[in-house]
Design a protein that fits this description.
Layout: H1 5-15, H2 34-45, E1 48-54, E2 57-64, E3 67-69, E4 92-94, H3 96-99, H4 105-120
Antiparallel strand pairs: 1-2, 1-4, 2-3
């Protein structure tokens, strides 16, 4: 499967739900999805998982083909945003294990299944 950022962003919006992150809202579907999204994208497309600290909390995203891609960046500008967008990304490399720390495996499985399905349509 080739990485097409626009196609993946569209599929993610359809795939995110309260079953992929409890913070999800209809108005801000990317809210709380950064960990699970970064892990699924890494699993499907490779690259690296990166992170940046926002007010003491890690925000996760990906590097694909040498380019930083924050697929949950809409959470910073949508209604109910908890944080402002990072002014500077720290791009600290993270492992899948650290990224998924505290995230239920069922959220990962649900997002991966939905994303693969939505990318196939």
């Amino acid at each position: 499967m080739a990485f097409d950022e626009n196609e993946i962003r569209t599929a993610l919006r359809a795939s995110w739900s309260r079953d992929t992150a409890v913070q999800w809202t209809r108005d801000n579907p990317a809210l709380g999805q950064c960990n699970v999204t970064a892990a699924v994208i890494h699993d499907l497309f490779g690259g690296r998982i990166l992170r940046t600290k926002l007010r003491g909390i890690w925000h996760y995203y990906n590097e694909i083909e040498g380019r930083r891609i924050d697929l949950t960046d809409s959470q910073f500008t949508s209604p109910g945003a908890l944080f402002d967008a990072p002014e500077i990304y720290q791009d600290e490399v993270s492992s899948c294990e650290d990224t998924m720390n505290g995230i239920p495996e069922r959220e990962y499985d649900t997002l991966k299944t939905a994303l693969v399905r939505d990318l196939g349509n």
